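Changelog-adjacent note: as of this version, every example in the card shows the full chain rather than a window. The one below runs 393 residues end to end.
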Amino acid sequence: MSPTIYEQTDEIGGTWVYTDRTGTDDYGLDIHSSMYQGLRTNLPKEVMGYPDYQIQASDISYVPSEIVRNFLEQFTHKYQLKDCIKFLHYVVNIIPKRDKWQVIVNDLKKQRIKFELYDYVMVCNGHYHTPLYPTIKGANTYKGYQLHSHDYKNSYRFKDETVLIIGAGPSGMDLCHEISKVAKRVTLSHHLPETLKTLFRFNVDQKPDVKYMDERRVYFMDGSKDEYSIIFYCTGYKYAFPFLSTDCGIHVDDNYVQPLYKHCININYPSMAFIGIPYYVCAAQMCDLQARFCMKFWTGQKTLPSKHEMLTDTNQQMNERFARGYKKRQAHMMGEEQGFYYTDLAETADIEDIKPVMTLLHNESSRRFMDDLLHFRDDIFRIVDDKHFIKIN
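Full-length structure tokens:
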């Protein structure tokens, strides 16, 4: 196997690379990273490394984003991956050509289009780059300022403003706390079944979903209404693959990417795989597992099931998830169930599983995040063995 990695920027790190810029870059491409100033991880570093290379720096568990970016640089250096990376190369289109893939790529520096052929394709563009806005009646008539968390860099813009934050996922919770330090008043709107346990600052209140807007006011599902100078959307991101031709056989329906075998392999063209689609996971560990999963089949060590068998397996698993109440947009959400997914991949491909302690620590961290946003990053963890961790403060 001779790998080529196409990277549209000139740096390692993807979403972990901070830039002050919003909108587009020097080449007219959308800014990829959603990183903002002062970000610390919302997962402990102990679950964020690769199985063969851990994040060593710092005695704390929740580290600044620069630590993660440096870790990725060090990993790249250790395994001499820069020899494989073509920086400032933007993939324009990927098209199936008989038993190969034609990749059309723009060498941004030379402004030259190249046509390349490959046996296999791994799509690793992440899913925190294309903002997802909710459909709210009247949002286009609202006269106040509106922006998405993708374009958030710091809290200065919110000083002395009245702010409505829509969404209480990790970014919504985190940025609500940061913005409330400088804003006059903040409302956090969400559809979680109960009021969040976290004790926010005195100037934060919580509301249910927004029902509609007019030019000046926001109307909520509970019948209340209010006025805000800024509406801030922390509503997540779209799974977007603009470089895939329709011939690739992949489509996205409300963030459900299909048809994928084990959330990973393109069932229509099994020589294409998507790495990193599931979320609320130990990302680096899972990406490593998915890559090993693919390589087991692509190198001929194991044979993939037939198309019919893969579709049957996928439909059965997804129907079970939907029957348990998952929405289509949650098709790839793992969370508390991530361990079952890892084991399924490992047993299917006969490869080494992720250590159970990773899932246990990830789930503990997620619960702490929801219950005590203001202090959970003070936790310091240490992994004892493959199945156990301790909290040392």
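Structural remarks: Helices lie at 65-78, 170-180, 283-298, 307-323, 338-349, 356-371.
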